[in-house]
Amino acid sequence: MPSPFSILGMAKTPTNAAVGKWMKDTREALRMSQVEFARHINRKPYFVVKTELGERRLDVIEFVDLSKALGSTPRKMFDRLLTYLS
Question: CATH for 7-85?
Answer without folding.
Answer: 1.10.260.40
